[in-house]
């Protein structure tokens, strides 16, 4: 199907829906679910909730195949909420320090649920021990191992954990022994420079070549680092439930590490625009949103209402949402996507007032912070509507 045919199909299927609205094409979504299983090899897959923010779709993925197991949450309060909704095996990907948030997790642990808090500082351990003692409840934690690579004049990766190598991991282990109710049950290392950095950007040939070279070098180095830390921790008697690594952009390399027991996937289910420029894989653009043409100030320029849903991270053109349908529609370089209006350049068949322009977000789950529901599409029609986190009254960050 061409993009123009898909534009006609989406118009027909979504006729009468109040704009702006967000949607998920289930045919494309389910294809991504299947393809990600293949890319992960024999590793278990933990779903990154940050990249989905929709409990119905997370449940859909978990029910698709037993290889999908567990959720990687982005806050402790989110993990406690998901636990109360029936989810289990919840890894909180970022440190938790507020007593109320740790307490909420401990209350779910007392019900027999499985939740892991992320740690990499002694301060985290002390605060978790404080709550664990008060509630007489052991609390499982996961050590966040920094996976960045450091080269002369270049930090290749993100600034994340203070545990960066075997020596700092050994020092952390010795501190951990002072906190008997804090139990190390997992190790995680997120290689953001592999999973989250595109290496086939349009018009950036020399940069792409450098990125691919750095990735190749980094993959070898971080595999050795992760294996050394995990093996040493196990030699100390730790019984780990999991060793987590990777993301949508690094499955092919992370799955090859013997030390890793599971990989994380989030963005690959929706496949936002940031994941269009990877050399090793292609997924279907399953999620998007529609904004309405409300005026035409000049020939071939159509102004839509709203649409300026810019993604987080370093400011750049790659964080701007992009027109998806109709084909060849483009943003105005002087205005881009705006809070209240978005001009679209389009020289195809004239767009009448009231027609939709379908957009794709730069990142995955952040789109759900703008909409209370997602319309679920099939080729045959609308299958239903499901609530986002926002629609369920939740905003965790």
Provide a descriptive summary of the structure in words.
- This protein has two domains: 26-270, Alanine racemase (TIM Barrel, Alpha-Beta Barrel), CATH 3.20.20.10; 287-387, D-serine dehydratase-like domain (Lyase, Ornithine Decarboxylase, Chain A, domain 1, Beta Barrel), CATH 2.40.37.
- Helix 7 packs across helix 9 (205-235).
- The two termini are 39 Å apart.
- The protein is built from eleven helices and 19 strands.
- By secondary structure, it is an alpha/beta fold.
CATH class of the largest domain: Alpha Beta
* N-end to C-end Cα span: 39 Å
CATH topology (level 3) name of the largest domain: TIM Barrel
Major beta sheet summary: 9 strands, mixed
Strand content: 25-35%
Ranges where pLDDT stays below 50 over 5 or more residues in a row are none
Structural class estimated from helices and strands: alpha/beta
Number of separate domains: 2
Helix content: 25-40%
How big is the Rg? 22 Å
Number of strands: 19
* Global morphology: globular
Please report the number of helical segments. Answer: 11
- What would you give as the CATH superfamily of the largest domain? Alanine racemase
CATH architecture of the largest domain, by name, is Alpha-Beta Barrel
Q: What is the residue-mean pLDDT, rounded to a whole number? A: 95
Q: What's the helix-strand series?
A: HEHEHEHEHEHEEEHEHHEHEHEEEEEEEE
């Amino acid at each position: 199907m061409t993009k123009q045919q898909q534009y006609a199909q989406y118009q027909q299927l979504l006729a009468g829906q109040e704009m702006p609205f967000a949607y998920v094409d289930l045919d494309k979504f389910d294809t991504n679910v299947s393809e990600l299983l293949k890319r992960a090899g024999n590793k278990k897959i933990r779903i990154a909730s940050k990249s989905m923010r929709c409990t119905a779709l997370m449940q859909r993925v978990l029910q698709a195949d037993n290889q999908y197991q567990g959720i990687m949450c982005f806050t402790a309060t989110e993990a406690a909420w998901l636990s109360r909704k029936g989810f289990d095996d919840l890894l909180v990907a970022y440190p938790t320090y507020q007593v109320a948030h740790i307490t909420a997790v401990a209350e779910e642990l007392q019900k027999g649920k499985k939740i892991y808090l992320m740690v990499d500082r002694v301060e985290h351990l002390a605060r978790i021990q404080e709550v664990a003692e008060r509630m007489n409840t052991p609390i499982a934690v996961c050590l966040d191992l920094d996976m960045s690579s450091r080269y002369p004049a270049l930090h290749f990766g993100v600034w994340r954990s203070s545990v960066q190598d075997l020596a700092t991991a050994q020092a952390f282990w010795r501190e951990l022994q002072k906190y008997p109710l804090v139990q190390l049950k997992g190790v995680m290392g997120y290689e953001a420079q592999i999973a989250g950095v595109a290496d086939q950007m349009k018009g950036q040939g020399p940069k792409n070549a450098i990125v691919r070279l750095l990735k190749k070098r980094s993959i070898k180095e971080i595999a050795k680092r992760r294996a050394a830390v995990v093996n040493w921790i196990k030699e100390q008697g730790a019984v780990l439930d999991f060793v987590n690594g990777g993301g949508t952009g690094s499955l092919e390399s992370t799955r090859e590490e013997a030390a890793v027991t599971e990989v994380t996937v989030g963005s690959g289910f929706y496949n936002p625009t940031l994941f269009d420029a990877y050399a090793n894989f292609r997924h279907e653009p399953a999620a998007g949103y529609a904004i309405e043409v409300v005026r035409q100030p000049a020939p071939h320029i159509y102004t839509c209402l709203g649409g300026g849903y810019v993604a987080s991270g370093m400011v750049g053109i790659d964080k701007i949402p992009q027109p998806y349908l109709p084909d060849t529609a483009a943003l105005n370089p002087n205005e881009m996507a705006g809070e209240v209006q978005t001009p679209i350049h389009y020289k195809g068949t004239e767009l009448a007032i009231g027609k939709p322009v379908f957009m794709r977000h730069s990142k995955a789950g952040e789109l759900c912070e703008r909409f209370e529901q997602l319309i679920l599409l099939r080729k045959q029609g609308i299958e239903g509507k499901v609530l986002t986190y926002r629609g369920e009254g939740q905003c965790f960050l």
